[in-house]
TrEMBL record:
<dbReference type="InterPro" id="IPR055210">
    <property type="entry name" value="CtpA/B_N"/>
</dbReference>
<feature type="region of interest" description="Disordered">
    <location>
        <begin position="382"/>
        <end position="429"/>
    </location>
</feature>
<dbReference type="GO" id="GO:0006508">
    <property type="term" value="P:proteolysis"/>
</dbReference>
<comment type="similarity">
    <text>Belongs to the peptidase S41A family.</text>
</comment>
<protein>
    <submittedName>
        <fullName>Carboxyl-terminal processing protease</fullName>
    </submittedName>
</protein>
<keyword id="KW-0732">Signal</keyword>
<feature type="compositionally biased region" description="Basic and acidic residues">
    <location>
        <begin position="382"/>
        <end position="392"/>
    </location>
</feature>
<keyword id="KW-0645">Protease</keyword>
<dbReference type="InterPro" id="IPR041489">
    <property type="entry name" value="PDZ_6"/>
</dbReference>
<dbReference type="GO" id="GO:0004175">
    <property type="term" value="F:endopeptidase activity"/>
</dbReference>
<dbReference type="InterPro" id="IPR036034">
    <property type="entry name" value="PDZ_sf"/>
</dbReference>
<feature type="signal peptide">
    <location>
        <begin position="1"/>
        <end position="25"/>
    </location>
</feature>
<dbReference type="InterPro" id="IPR005151">
    <property type="entry name" value="Tail-specific_protease"/>
</dbReference>
<dbReference type="InterPro" id="IPR029045">
    <property type="entry name" value="ClpP/crotonase-like_dom_sf"/>
</dbReference>
<feature type="domain" description="PDZ">
    <location>
        <begin position="98"/>
        <end position="166"/>
    </location>
</feature>
<dbReference type="InterPro" id="IPR001478">
    <property type="entry name" value="PDZ"/>
</dbReference>
<dbReference type="GO" id="GO:0008236">
    <property type="term" value="F:serine-type peptidase activity"/>
</dbReference>
Length: 443
């Protein structure tokens, strides 16, 4: 799928993250020691004066600070300060942050498989995820989780409760549930690997599909391919148009962004990167296969579309494969490499900038959509027409034998199922554009 002779283990480590999110982990990488320093840094003399100052500050803090501080804490804080002052996306990751980063990009974690919310101070089950310990144990939507391992959840934040339900795979956990106001009962279940999908899809109308990517995880490219196949199957094998929704997508793994773009492109460059260290200059090109079958495409972006989402949007815009609609994107055009360290820690450090096929760097500028459509609220007015010919008693039938079409107030079963585009102005505009493109294409 990818044409990149220089795709090394370091390249596989490249991850893209938004300025607002914590981080998204990359695939396994070499330890930090495996990354060769540049010739310039290898020959540069040690800054002895600055090192003496550092040692002096360390000694003074240990001796004079109001409370005792151990060497480990001081040195870790020094490392954090060194990374945090480089740019907003470089960071030193402790064990918890590193684990969270790995979970967010892999889309897998040890848990129970429950989507939860809050109600009256209690944790409420929104939905059990299919084929998980929660669904197999019979937990139902609407159940209140009042205790976790005997500890009341009332007064806890949802984040605190979720952290307690996540943990080591195979470990057992007991939830105390209340269903429909009844008597509390216990359910004991074992944590398992939970997979979170980053892609959602459905038909908006007959012939028009919708694919939303919430973030770019390791398996996102594969999920988009499956979503496209299912949409075609659900519409008798052919689509007339497709909306790709990248709004509020903070980014993720570079490799997945390339794979997603490749589903819609048959040739040409997708993205390339430039940096200082060896193997940081990479080029990714499209494979001739076209999972989208050339269907008319509208891509939705906004100020929350960052990094990997901007790579996909920029490639499709430069290659004139789709129409970008919405508002300017976030503007994060840097690449972060995750370098594991000892003791389950890691460095997340900016190593390169990426460029769209036409050589655009979107760093601190963002991508401008082809058609600007701001977010707006849809307010539908009630039809004041309450009476039609078909409502009149004894009316004549249609000359061609067609069925009567009485007013909505007279028709039975006229309540319409809510669709995503009914309350989403940008999405409704994208669908309208697709219909126009489809009409033009058919002529």
């Amino acid at each position: 799928m990818l044409h990149s002779p220089r795709l090394t283990s370091l390249a596989l480590a490249v991850a893209l993250v938004s300025g607002a999110s914590l981080a998204f982990a990359a695939e396994p990488v070499k330890p930090a020691a495996a990354v060769a320093p540049t010739t310039v840094s290898a020959k540069a003399p040690l800054p002895l004066d600055e090192l003496r100052t550092f040692a002096e500050v360390l000694d003074r803090v240990k001796a004079a600070y109001v409370e005792p501080v151990d060497d480990k804490t001081l040195l870790e804080n020094a490392i954090k300060g060194m990374l945090s002052n480089l740019d907003p996306h470089s960071a030193y990751l402790g064990p918890e942050d590193f684990q969270e980063l790995q979970e967010s990009t892999s889309g897998e974690f040890g848990g129970l498989g429950i989507e939860v919310g809050m109600e009256d101070g209690f944790v409420k089950v929104v939905s059990p995820i299919d084929d998980t310990p929660a669904s197999r144990a019979g937990i139902e939507a609407g159940d209140l989780i009042v205790k976790i391992n005997g500890a009341p959840t009332r007064g806890q934040t949802m984040t605190e409760a979720v952290d307690k339900m996540r943990g080591k795979i195979g470990e057992k956990i007991t939830l105390t549930l209340v269903r429909d106001g009844g008597t509390p009962f216990d359910v004991t279940l074992a944590r398992a690997v939970i997979q979170v999908k980053s892609v959602k899809s459905q038909l908006l109308e007959s012939g028009y599909g919708y694919v939303r990517i919430t973030q770019f995880q390791v398996k996102t490219g594969e999920e988009v391919g499956k979503a496209l196949a299912k949409l075609r199957k659900d519409n008798n094998g052919k689509l007339r148009g497709l909306v790709l929704d990248l709004r509020n997508n903070p980014g993720g793994v570079l490799q997945s962004a390339v794979e997603v773009a490749d589903h819609f492109l048959t040739k040409g460059l997708i993205v390339y990167t430039k940096g200082r260290i060896a193997n940081s200059e990479l080029r990714f090109s499209a494979d001739p296969a076209d999972a989208s079958e050339g269907v008319p495409l509208v891509v939705l972006i906004n100020g929350g579309s960052a990094s990997a989402a901007e790579i996909v949007a920029g490639a499709l815009q430069d290659q004139k494969r789709g129409v970008l609609m919405g508002t300017d994107s976030f503007g994060k055009g840097s690449v972060q490499t995750v370098l594991p360290l000892n003791n389950d820690r890691a460095l997340k450090i900016t190593t390169a900038l990426y460029y769209t096929p036409n050589g655009r760097s979107i760093q601190a500028q963002g991508i401008v959509p082809d058609i600007e459509v701001s977010r707006a609220k849809i307010t539908r007015e009630q039809d004041t027409e309450n009476f039609k010919e078909a409502d009149l008693q004894g009316h004549l039938g249609n000359g061609n034998g067609g069925a009567d079409r009485p007013s909505s107030s007279k028709a039975s079963g006229t309540s319409k199922k809510e669709r995503p585009q009914d309350d989403d102005f940008q999405l409704s505009q994208a669908l309208s554009l697709l219909k126009g493109l489809s009409i033009t294409r058919d002529k």
